[in-house]
C-alpha cells in the first residue's frame, strides 16, 4: 500500500495500480476498520477501484499521526485471511428492444448476436468497485472483454432512470435520469437510489451483483416503465 | 419570505453534507465558508444554521414576518424598502419589508442569514442544495421566483456588526496555496516550475463544481488512470493541460491526474473570483498548511463583533 497526500486534511491510499479482487477486499477491510472513526476524527471515506481517500479532521489528527494510524491498520489487516465477499445482489433486467437502444449496435460491433451479448452480460458476477458520478451510481466490473465497448462519441442528453449500460469493461444501472455516454442494453426496474429510503441504495462498494433477464411483463409488474 | 427574484443563482446552504461520499453524494455547502459563518454569527445563530448563498446577486424578496437578517460576502449594494443598508451588520426587518440585493462589484458570493436560520428539512443530514444531484434545499432545486422560504419564530437578538478590519478583502493578490499530492510526481520539473510561477486566468467555466483556469499548459505523463476519490480543492489537469480546481459540488470520484489540492482558506478566496481574474499558485508543505489553518483559526477566534444597539 502506498500513501499520498490528497489535500491539507486528506490522504489517499493506493492498494494496486489495477482493478482486482484483492485490493477491493483490502479497501473494504480498511473501510470496516475506519468506520468507527467516521464522525470522530475521520470526516469521510471515498473508496474507488484500487484506492481509498481518507478525509480527516486536522483539528484532531496531525498528518504524521494519520499516516501512522493508516499504515498500522493496513499492516494489521494484511495479516487477516478473511477477505469478505460482500452481499450478492441480483438485479433483474429487461433486455427487450424498446429498453435497449444500443444493444443491436453493440452486438454488431462485437460480432455477436444480441442473445449472446445478453447471455454474457448476465452470465457473470460483478463487483461494485466505486459509487460516484451521480448519487447511487455504482461502477460494476469487470465486464467480459467480448462485450466491452467504449463510450458513445456523442453522449445522450438524457439516459433514462434504470438504464443498464456498458462502458469499456464497466457496467452500471443509471439511478436517475442524467446525461451519459454509456451503451444502453436494458432497463432495471429496481430503484438504485431512493433518498427517502434507508438505506438509500440496495448495494454498497464491495458488494457483488448479478443480472438476471426478465420478460416485459415481469418488468412492468415490478414497476418498470417503458 | 417570498422570493420575488432569485437573481443569478440563489441556493439554500448549510455547512454541507458530510459523510455521504460512499453513496456518491458530494458536500455542497458555502463556497466561502468564512462569509457564511459570519452571516450566521451576526444573527446570533448556531454554526450550521441554514442560510442562502447568492452568486453575483440580483436577488429580491419580501419578508412575511418580523426578524433580523445579515448579509456578508461579496461587496454589493443592498436596500431594504429602497433604503441603502450596510453589509456585515445585523438588520432589523419588519413584516412586509422588501430586501433588494444588487450585483457584486468585488467578489461574487453573498450570504443572507436570518435569525434562527431558515427551518428547512435536511436530506442526508444537511439542507445544502446540490442542483446536479437534485438534493437539499426546498426540493433539490435553486430558489425561483415565488419560492417561499420558511422563517423561524423571531426571538430578538442583539444588533451586531463586524468591524471593517476583519472583513475579507477580495482584491487580495496573494497566491493561492497548494499542497502537492496525488499524481504530482507525474508532472515534469519544468511543468511544475511553470505551474507555480505563471499567472492563470479564471475562465468562463467557473461554477460550484469547479473553476477552470487558463494559462501555462501542464501535462501529466499519465494518460490513463483509475478513477479515485477527489478531495476539496483538488487541482485536476485533463489532457488539455488547463487546471480545474474542484470545489463544493465536485463529483466524488474522477480519473484525471491531479497536481495536489488547494487549501480551504484559499478555495474560499478563489470561489469569490469572477471570470477574467488573474491568479497564481504557491506550493506549501502540509506542515505549512496546518500552520496556516491554526493561525487563521486563532485569528478568527479573536474577532469580536460590535454591538450597534
Features:
heterodimer; A: 226 residues; alpha+beta; Gyrase A, domain 2; Cyclophilin; 2 domains; 7-stranded mixed beta sheet; 4-stranded antiparallel beta sheet; 5 helices; B: 309 residues; 8-stranded mixed beta sheet; 5-stranded antiparallel beta sheet; 22 strands
Please tell me the overall pLDDT of chain A: 93
Number of strands of chain A: 13
Q: Any idea what the CATH architecture of the largest domain in chain A is? A: Beta Barrel
Number of domains of chain A: 2
Q: What general outline of chain B do the C-alpha atoms trace? A: globular
Largest interchain contact: A-B, 45 and 40 residues
Which secondary-structure class do the elements of chain B indicate? alpha+beta
By DSSP (H or I, 4+ residues per run), the number of helices of chain B equals 4
Instruction: Indicate the radius of gyration of chain B in whole angstroms.
Output: 20 Å
Strands across the major sheet of chain A, in which order? Answer: 5-13-6-7-10-9-12
Query: What is the H/E string of chain A?
Result: EEHEEHEHHEEEEEEEEH
Structural class, from secondary structure content of chain A?
A: alpha+beta
Tally of strands of chain B: 22
* Spatial separation of the terminal alpha carbons of chain B: 25 Å
The named CATH superfamily of the largest domain in chain A: Cyclophilin-like
Topology:
The complex is a heterodimer of chains A (226) and B (309).
Chain A: E1 2-7, E2 10-14, H1 21-35, E3 42-47, E4 51-56, H2 63-78, E5 88-93, H3 103-110, H4 114-122, E6 125-131, E7 138-141, E8 156-159, E9 163-167, E10 170-173, E11 178-180, E12 183-187, E13 208-213, H5 216-221
Parallel strand pairs in A: 5-13
Antiparallel strand pairs in A: 1-2, 2-4, 3-4, 6-7, 6-13, 7-10, 8-11, 9-10, 9-12
Chain B: E1 2-5, E2 9-13, H1 33-42, E3 51-55, E4 60-62, E5 67-75, E6 78-80, E7 83-85, E8 90-93, E9 98-101, E10 106-114, E11 160-161, E12 176-180, H2 189-195, E13 200-206, E14 210-214, E15 228-229, E16 234-236, E17 244-246, E18 253-254, E19 258-262, H3 264-270, E20 278-279, E21 281-284, H4 286-301, E22 306-307
Parallel strand pairs in B: 12-21
Antiparallel strand pairs in B: 1-4, 2-3, 3-10, 4-9, 5-8, 5-10, 6-7, 6-9, 11-22, 12-19, 13-14, 13-20, 14-17, 15-18, 16-17, 16-19
Amino acid at each position: 500500500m502506498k500513501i499520498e497526500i490528497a489535500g491539507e486534511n486528506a490522504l489517499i491510499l493506493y492498494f494496486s495500480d489495477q482493478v482486482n479482487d484483492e485490493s477491493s477486499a483490502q479497501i473494504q477491510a480498511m473501510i470496516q476498520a475506519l468506520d468507527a472513526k467516521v464522525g470522530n476524527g475521520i470526516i469521510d471515506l471515498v473508496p474507488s477501484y484500487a484506492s481509498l481517500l481518507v478525509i480527516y479532521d486536522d483539528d484532531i489528527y496531525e498528518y504524521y499521526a494519520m499516516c501512522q494510524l493508516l499504515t498500522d491498520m493496513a499492516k494489521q489487516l494484511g495479516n487477516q485471511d478473511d477477505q469478505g465477499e460482500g452481499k450478492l445482489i441480483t438485479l433483474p433486467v429487461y433486455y427487450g428492444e424498446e429498453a435497449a437502444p444500443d444493444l443491436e449496435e453493440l452486438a454488431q460491433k462485437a460480432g455477436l448476436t444480441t442473445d449472446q451479448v445478453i447471455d454474457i452480460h448476465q452470465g457473470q458476477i460483478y463487483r461494485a468497485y466505486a459509487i460516484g458520478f451521480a448519487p447511487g451510481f455504482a461502477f460494476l466490473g469487470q465486464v467480459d472483454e467480448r462485450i466491452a465497448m467504449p463510450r458513445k462519441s456523442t453522449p445522450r442528453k438524457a439516459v433514462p432512470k434504470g438504464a443498464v449500460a456498458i462502458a469499456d469493461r464497466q457496467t452500471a444501472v443509471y439511478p436517475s435520469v442524467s446525461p451519459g455516454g454509456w451503451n444502453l442494453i436494458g432497463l432495471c426496474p429496481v430503484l438504485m437510489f431512493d433518498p427517502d429510503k434507508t438505506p438509500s441504495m440496495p448495494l454498497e462498494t464491495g458488494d457483488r451483483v448479478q443480472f438476471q433477464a426478465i420478460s416485459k411483463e415481469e418488468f412492468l409488474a415490478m414497476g418498470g416503465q417503458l | 419570505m417570498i422570493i420575488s427574484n432569485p437573481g443569478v443563482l440563489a441556493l439554500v446552504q448549510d455547512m454541507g453534507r458530510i459523510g455521504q461520499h460512499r453513496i456518491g453524494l458530494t458536500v455542497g455547502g458555502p463556497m466561502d465558508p468564512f462569509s457564511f459563518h459570519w452571516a450566521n454569527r451576526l444573527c446570533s445563530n448556531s454554526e450550521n444554521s441554514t442560510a442562502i448563498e447568492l452568486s453575483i446577486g440580483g436577488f429580491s424578496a419580501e419578508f412575511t414576518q418580523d426578524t433580523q437578517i445579515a448579509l456578508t460576502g461579496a461587496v454589493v449594494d443592498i436596500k431594504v424598502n429602497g433604503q441603502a443598508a450596510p453589509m456585515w451588520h445585523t438588520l432589523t426587518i419588519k413584516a412586509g419589508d422588501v430586501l433588494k440585493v444588487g450585483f457584486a462589484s468585488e467578489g461574487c458570493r453573498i450570504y443572507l442569514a436570518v435569525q434562527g436560520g431558515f427551518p428547512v428539512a435536511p436530506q442526508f443530514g444537511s439542507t445544502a442544495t446540490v442542483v446536479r444531484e437534485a438534493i437539499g434545499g426546498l426540493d433539490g432545486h435553486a430558489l425561483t421566483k415565488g419560492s417561499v422560504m420558511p422563517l423561524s419564530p423571531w426571538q430578538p437578538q442583539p444588533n451586531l456588526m463586524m468591524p471593517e478590519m476583519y472583513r475579507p478583502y477580495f482584491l487580495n493578490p496573494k497566491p493561492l496555496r497548494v499542497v502537492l499530492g496525488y499524481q504530482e510526481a507525474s508532472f515534469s520539473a519544468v511543468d511544475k516550475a511553470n505551474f507555480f510561477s505563471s499567472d492563470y486566468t479564471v475562465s468562463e467555466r467557473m461554477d460550484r463544481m469547479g473553476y477552470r483556469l487558463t494559462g501555462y499548459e501542464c501535462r501529466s505523463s499519465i494518460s490513463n488512470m483509475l478513477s479515485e476519490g477527489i478531495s476539496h480543492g483538488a487541482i485536476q489537469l485533463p489532457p488539455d493541460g488547463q487546471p480545474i480546481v474542484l470545489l463544493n459540488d465536485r463529483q466524488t470520484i474522477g480519473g484525471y491526474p491531479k497536481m495536489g489540492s488547494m487549501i480551504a482558506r484559499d478555495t474560499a478566496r478563489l470561489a469569490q473570483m469572477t471570470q477574467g481574474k488573474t491568479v497564481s499558485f504557491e506550493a506549501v508543505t502540509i506542515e505549512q498548511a496546518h500552520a496556516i489553518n491554526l493561525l487563521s483559526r486563532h485569528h478568527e477566534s479573536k474577532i469580536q463583533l460590535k454591538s450597534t444597539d
